[in-house]
Amino acid sequence: MKDGAPTLTADLLLQAYQVGVFPMSEGRDDPEVFWVDPRMRGIMPLDAFHISRSLARSLRRGRYTVTYNTAFKAVVQGCADRDETWINSTIFDLYGALHDRGYAHSVEVWDDNRLVGGVYGVAIGGAFFGESMFSRVTDASKIALAYLVDRLRLGGYQLFDTQFITPHLASLGAVEVPRDHYRAMLVEALNTEASFDSPGPVPPAQDVIQRNAQTS
Fold it and tell me: Across all residues in the chain, what is the average pLDDT?
């Protein structure tokens, strides 16, 4: 953090999410962290996630195994393992602390024992704040997102915040909303009860596809 700013802790991070801001760094080797509050916010409407025919084929093929919260730190490391990243050591450690406290969650995609994709984020009330995702093989991050969206629906979540929007996310159904609209959605979601763990075990791919088709 900048000189004079409060020390960034896991509790401060949770408070920041609840007022609509999140942290980033300029790079893995930059010790500074700054707050971001986008004018236009990316969200993924949980009833509008788009599973394309090619993604449905990848899901049905059953080549990959999906798990929840079994390799959280490895997923964050996978997200940071790129030429440019906003995940520095402070952010890495803080999200690990949130995971240990039950606030941060991950979805992992495996090819045998090799982690090939995943997504992670923070859950507070009925809001899930998506942080980052990665893919080492075709469709791995999309598979992780499909399972995440299904998990959030079943767990009673109302808001899936993607922070920003990219062509990749837009192709899956993400949209942008103005800051004021986002904050209104956030307040409502934070007052909603939800649980990441309540849906139970990892569902078969066909169930994920079918439930998505019923709501999209």
Answer: 93
